[in-house]
């Protein structure tokens, strides 16, 4: 029998971009074997998709309950070991809860849940059962993001004094101005998306990234969000002021109505001695800025990078890597954890990231609703 990790998937069928991303990522490093799942609420559609991608159909299930019941009836050395949740937001919590309670390891898309309270419930279950839980804040998988984190931790830029994250997209601009479309898109429906669209979808990436690379916790926020139309309940743009300490502050800007933008995610960390900047659309370049010195550009694959950065680099220097590779590094880290191997704490985001992310979303929305006031996260 194959020594690969037996992997199942919920959602992500058809032409789903996120489904392709996860399947390609899991295929890297030869660590996983896709054995089944439930790709679509219609089991016939799900079965047809399984045939299309070339996996057996005997473990294609009509829903989560059928999957759990069938898999638990199998010997432990045959059942699925890791299950990925690639469904719309409102299904993340009930699916993750059922899987964790049933003893499965989980990889989940973000946001982890619909509410902070749900996130705390999942955290308690995981702590009790000891499951591995990975959350796909994919950008942490980029080698130069990991290098950025290591350089900051080693004091190479000095004490952090200013942080700045921007995540701009323009895709909602194409539909928000049409009343019918803005009232029929699931991401703009609170019952399916949660209390936030923009912060919940992309702003939380920026929040997690700032805490990830700096190693610091954001302590309080002041948010000013934009809904653009009175009949739209969900934020589609927002600016959030941040306090990480008495003298460490910053700003987080996210938008889905930044006309013409594609996936413009940037992060800049300014220290006492130097600064580091990274851009998702040019992910193989990490910029180092120092007073009175020419800007330096660090690139992946070189010996000057940290061990965790080099571990996530698959190709020789000068060969660009991208989003599939970043997600592949997340899956690689989870595989190490599932197999009981030693792994670096930076290799995959987990439950704590999900809990803090949901707390950030709720507190930022509260800050806006209460009249743009400071709200503590701790």
Automatic annotation (TrEMBL):
Q: Which residues cross the membrane?
A: none
Give this protein's Gene Ontology molecular function annotations: nucleotide binding
* Record domain Gfo/Idh/MocA-like oxidoreductase N-terminal: where: 6-136
InterPro entries in the record: Gfo/Idh/MocA-like_OxRdtase_N, Gfo/Idh/MocA_oxidoreduct, GFO_IDH_MocA-like_dom, NAD(P)-bd_dom_sf
Q: Which SUPFAM superfamilies match?
A: Glyceraldehyde-3-phosphate dehydrogenase-like, C-terminal domain, NAD(P)-binding Rossmann-fold domains
GFO/IDH/MocA-like oxidoreductase domain: residues covered: 145-276
The family database entries (Pfam families) matched by this protein are listed as: GFO_IDH_MocA (PF01408), GFO_IDH_MocA_C3 (PF22725)
| Name recorded for this polypeptide | Gfo/Idh/MocA family oxidoreductase
